[in-house]
Amino acid sequence: DQPVPIVVVDSEHRFCLDEKAISSILLQNDIMNLPVAVISVAGAFRKGKSFLLNFFLRYLTNYGTDNWLGGSDELLSGFSWRGGSDRDTTGILMWSKVFKISLKCYHLVPILELSLSGFIMSIREICCVNRLHGKLVNKTLLNIAQNILKTVLNVILLLFTEYGRLAMEESSEKPFQSLQFLVRDWSYPYEYEFGYEGGRKLLDKRLELTEQQHEELQRVRTHIRSCFSVFLIFFLLQIFHLFKLFYFCVNMLCYKYIVFKTHLYDLLCLGVTSIIVDLSLINIDKLKNYHTYAHLYIYYNLFHTMSTPQATAEANNLSAVSKAKDVYVNLMEEVCGGDKPFLNPARLEDKHQEHRQTSLDGFDGSRKMGGVEFSMSYRDQLEVDINESYENFCKNNDAKNVFRYARTPAVFFAFGAVSYILSGLFGFLYLTSFSTIFSLLCMATLVALVMWAYVRYTGEHQAIGQALEVTADFIWD
């Protein structure tokens, strides 16, 4: 098991998605159709994101056991981390192993870990990452060192709330699930204690509305709580400062500091628990792994060619089209799938209309961005896709009709028999010319029948076979 880079930024500041890497994780057969939860840690480089994620790895690996932290001599392994001033990892990394946890509401929930490591991003790139999080991630931990400055908080809140404002125009539900600030190396426990309680007090103070604030800052603070189902701050003890003079100790766990251990456990335990709650309450449509992969693939391809809001709306609508089409195909498979017998064409048409409407209603009812007019073209495309699928279902259904197979040889046999009888009749009446014509037709029909049988048996010369089918249909009509 190892961290897998799934998104990197090239020299031209474009996001590059490693399709093979992401599909190897998300499209595993045993988890592909399960609802998925994603833990993500984001923040500036050299602030301990990998260090924190490795504790999540250890907690999830030993989930349900008391001694999840392990022994004091165990290396903290997983995502690469070290001391020093230079960055160690860059890009978006996902852990290759998917952790599966059984719940009462779901039989099994895969949990993924995601790290946004060492990006120096433009505003455009930050917006892209925020939108990716808003669509895919159940829990985002923003990793900040020492303190939450008002200037930093204002920028972060502005980015998140702008996207939240657009999303909430299309839906009354909260666009994000959970955002938590993790303040590392908190140096002021005498003002606000470690853990969630101290963070809540500071958050209330930072988000306090005053008349002296600029109008935009007041609007952001009013709107931010409506964008998230969970919005918290957590303070963690200065653990790195304990090791800064001894480089050889950086890669070793130190457990004798009970305060650090206690609050670390609270962070991990409550973090995973809140993900489970989020999955039950927020993820109403039970997001599937393959839909997660589709979101990633569509979004990063669109983002290269259009503006951020347009790319987000485009990806959102394409995903809705994909899910609605899946609904139609799955319902039709139950009616006339490969293992189903031949169905009366009129009955098939009725089922098509019924399931087509179900699919369109699902598309109309799904959460989308861009407005009704923007979504109409995607709805039209969905109808085109449904009609194409219906044509394929009709062809497959016709192929199951035994009499459909027998019609061509029956037509040729009947035509040949009639030609033979008429040839004999005209010969008896001494109408030699007509007798010869019908004799030739009888022989041609016999040759066509033999050729049709050869094509059906060998599968070769399909063009000739298709021409014979068309001729038989013409004679039948």
TrEMBL record:
Membrane-protein topology: Multi-pass membrane protein
Subcellular location as annotated: Endoplasmic reticulum membrane
Pfam families assigned: GBP (PF02263)
Domain GB1/RHD3-type G: 33-99
InterPro entries listed in its UniProt record: G_GB1_RHD3_dom, Guanylate-bd_C_sf, Guanylate-bd_N, P-loop_NTPase
Gene Ontology molecular functions: GTP binding; GTPase activity
Entry keyword annotation includes Transport: no
Transmembrane segments: 228-258, 264-284, 410-431, 437-455
Family per record: Belongs to the TRAFAC class dynamin-like GTPase superfamily. GB1/RHD3 GTPase family.
PANTHER family: GUANYLATE BINDING PROTEIN
Name of the featured protein: GB1/RHD3-type G domain-containing protein
Organism annotation: Ciona savignyi
Lineage: Eukaryota, Metazoa, Chordata, Tunicata, Ascidiacea
